[in-house]
Write a structure and sequence with these properties.
Elements: H1 2-6, E1 12-19, E2 22-30, E3 45-49, E4 57-61
Antiparallel strand pairs: 1-2, 3-4
Length: about 80
């Protein structure tokens, strides 16, 4: 999420391909430079919730939002 908001030089995604119990191939793919993304004024924040237990989350408030989210402690949500 931070790569999208702040930009990054060259993020890389690692891929692994499996077929049943056999590892077929591992490879890295470069995405090239990522330009920073500006949140629209109508978006108060970005919320990311992991799909696996214990369901970690990350919130990035939009500092320029028309209707900002209330102040909160980002370490506890």
């Amino acid at each position: 999420m931070d790569y999208a908001l702040e930009g990054a030089e060259v993020p890389t995604i690692a891929l692994q391909f499996w077929r049943r119990h056999f590892h077929l191939r591992t490879g890295d793919r470069s995405m090239g430079p990522v330009e920073p993304w500006s949140m629209p004024l109508d978006l108060a924040a970005l919320l990311w919730i992991d799909h696996a237990f214990p369901f970690q989350m990350a919130v990035r408030p939009n500092p320029n939002a028309r209707h900002p989210i209330p102040d909160f402690d980002q370490t506890t949500g």
